[in-house]
From TrEMBL:
It is found in: Secreted. Residues 217-279 are annotated as: Disordered. InterPro entries: AL/BT2_dom, ConA-like_dom_sf, Pectin_lyas_fold, Pectin_lyase_fold/virulence, Polysaccharide_Lyase_9. SUPFAM superfamilies: Concanavalin A-like lectins/glucanases (SSF49899), Pectin lyase-like (SSF51126). Residues 218-244 have a biased composition (Low complexity). It comes from Catellatospora methionotrophica. Residues 50-189 form the 3-keto-alpha-glucoside-1,2-lyase/3-keto-2-hydroxy-glucal hydratase domain. Its main location: secreted. This is 3-keto-alpha-glucoside-1,2-lyase/3-keto-2-hydroxy-glucal hydratase domain-containing protein.
Amino acid sequence: MRSTSLPVRPRARRAGLVTAAVTALLAMVMTALLNLTGGVALAATLFSDNFNSGSATGWSKSGGDWSVVTDGTGTFQQSKADSELARQFAGSASWTNYTVTARVKPTGFSGSGRYAALGARSTGSSTRYQLALLNTGRAELQAVNGSTVTVIGGTNLSVTTGTWYTLQLSASGSTLTGWVNGAQVASGSSSLFGAGRIVLVTSYASARFDDVVVSDGAAPSPSAPASPSASPSAPTSPSASPSAPASPSPSTSPPPSSGTVYVAPGGTDGAAGTIGNPTTLTSALTRVTAGGTIYMRGGTYNYAQTVTVATGNNGTSSARKKLSAYPGETPVLNFSAQAEDPANRGLAVNGNYWHVYGLVVERAGDNGIFVGGSNNIFERTVTRYNRDTGLQLSRTLSTTPKADWPANNLILSAESHDNADSDGEDADGFAAKLTVGSGNVFRYCVSHNNIDDGWDLYTKTDTGAIGAVTIEDSLAYNNGTLSNGGQAGNGDRNGFKLGGEDIGVNHIVRRTISFANGKHGFTFNRNPGSMTISNNLAINNTERNFTFEAGSSVFRNNTSCRSSSGTNDKIVGNTDSSNQWWMGSNGSRCASYTGSLGWSFASGGNLVVTLGGRVVSL
């Protein structure tokens, strides 16, 4: 459990504000990071728990029989269906405006009118707001005040035991809103409870809970209200706003516009692919033409096999194929049914000239998104909880010739976090390693809380040098430690790892921040090439902020800060006075650094950054 605001123990003798040089550098990087999505995981995180540690530290029980069990990954189970009420509380009684999200799987009901629920603003054992899945076929937003239950809103929803549902409950002032599988099911007002903890609840029901995340502030609406007969396996209705017309009924659905195919969790292979009669993703991938778009409706898509864009399934430089979230909705590709195995990737894009936009890919047995093709764009994707690197570029097959290694791909405004393999040494946030061509770029990306490195550009002797990679305007923090506090001793735990096996590759790393990673902030990792390392900021990484022990890399305008003692930076290469390294003390640029760096998204979507208690960019 980690907050996105990351305090570090300050020096007692340091006080005041950072100097203009560091402020300007942070402003430059973070202004670029404004292009990051304000979606599922990039708001300021107050609390998170995926129970993969095997424990439920931080939760307090009231009734029921609770334990952490394995359901693909760790989950929090309440096993007594005959319990009148079973609750687990977490968080702070002072939390006011926030959004809580969790996956919930009802596993049994004892009688009619029973439920499993996700709650917010709980002020006591019998007071809370809750979003409840009832076995009467309803999803309801409720205010529970002792024995009085007031229904704020709801909709008919098929609730099936053994099925995972993603619940999201937002409290902002007196406004309460609830979503199920990305579709809004209720919204209304209540002033009963102004602050309080989160709570997991069952009433005469057994259930499993997972992936609990609390984000500061109200969530943006993933979609409009679900239709009265919606079920988790049915397509959710699009927003009835000026930017997205209301969904026509299936009987009157027009054909999709030229080149457009619609996909929904309840779609079928043989369906027409219209908005009212959606198809499946695997079918749509074979139908979409160059210049066309596959729109994925919000909700969770459960897969046991890799979803592949096959080699040869290409767009063109002037007419890409696009795989996109439907506007305002969040499709989640969930591969938790896969075992951990190098063959079990999530989404594999081996074609060329694709644009993948707005997808969440989670819990694959290997990479979340694997890129074997070239000239692709991956924008505003989130890769999380996968059992190898979240998003990785490498050749498609061991027989793929070097001329066909993935090249000229752009990873844009993407986030990758909490990826962890069982050995704890391979799962990075992002990787372009082993077998990649030239021209691959990461821009405006955030990598955090992965078990190994934030970025890995490893090269090995067997296959020779990879192409030069550019990483710019990006952020790596807390790699080596998962969001739930879990760690593994085998991981390298660097922010940016830039090489391997004494093979020189001239990568470019500029305008990035590496903060509080478990080993080095930036490391050459036996890359003796001539890299360009410019305008980067490293703060409080566990060993060195910068470690470059060989090569002829060029260093300009880099800054290294610490709030306590640490290991001196080591720099071999072309460096000058424009850099400020850590050599036992802070230089003038960060002489007033007080030991805290934080960032969050304001209600309007702008990124707010603070360093040493001072707001440095908006």
